[in-house]
Amino acid sequence: MTGWQVIRGADFQAMPWRNGGGTTWEIARGRFPDGAEAEWHWRFSLAEIASNGPFSSFPGIDRLLTVIAGQGIELKIDDAPPRRLLAGEDIAFPGEAAIGCDLLDGPTRDLNIMVDRRVARIWPGRGGRRLQAEAGLILLYAGEEVGLVADDQNLRLAPGDAVIGSAGSVGDVTEGRPVWARIERLSV
């Protein structure tokens, strides 16, 4: 993949959670060339949390969760004090951690980015308008209409669409406030 790939919300793939407690809509997943053996090295998905309960375990995976809709959640991660997350707030945690989740007031929608920590790291894009994929990827989700000038393309994203920028790609958000993160490929 080179440049920027738009993925429309209608094309997300629905699948049950590993623990059977809900549904995830997979936006995309991929592998890096010459990476560690794994089904995937990175995964980009959207989930609806409709009830209190545990998260699935993903040993060896680092996760970044961003609440994008709803009143929020409270996460209990291993033995740490509970952490409250409202819409627009994110948290990074190891996939093998014991996670308990309580809804604050009704269901939420959450964006999830996961990486195999042997080959990549996640960096949340907190408020920046310039997106640059150096040796990895940019993963962007449009919770509202978003304008993006990306390389030589003028992209318009509807609410619920996503875009992936490959290594070397540069983009500038011209309209809207998307949720995005950068995945950096580790040296092999």
TrEMBL record:
Gene3D superfamilies: Jelly Rolls. It comes from the Bacteria. InterPro entries: RmlC-like_jellyroll (IPR014710), RmlC_Cupin_sf (IPR011051), Uncharacterised_HutD/Ves (IPR010282). Pfam families: HutD. CDD domains: cupin_HutD_N. SUPFAM superfamilies: RmlC-like cupins (SSF51182). This is HutD family protein. The lineage of its organism: Bacteria, Pseudomonadati, Pseudomonadota, Alphaproteobacteria, Acetobacterales.
